[in-house]
Amino acid sequence: MTRVLRTRAELRDALAAMPRPIGLVPTMGWLHEGHRELMERARSENATTVVTIFVNPRQFNEAADYTRYPRNEVRDFAIAEAEGVDVVFAPAIEEVYPPGFDTTVSVGAVARPLEGAARPGHFDGVATVVAILFELVHADRAYFGQKDAQQVMVIRQMARDLAIGTEVIACPTVRESDGLALSSRNVHLSPADRAAAPVLRRALLAAREAWDGGERSGDALRTVTRDVLAAEPRADVAYVSVADGSTLAELDRVSGPALASVAVRFGATRLIDNEPLG
Ligand code: AMP
Question: What atom in ligand 1 is closest to the CA of residue 146?
Answer without folding.
Answer: 12
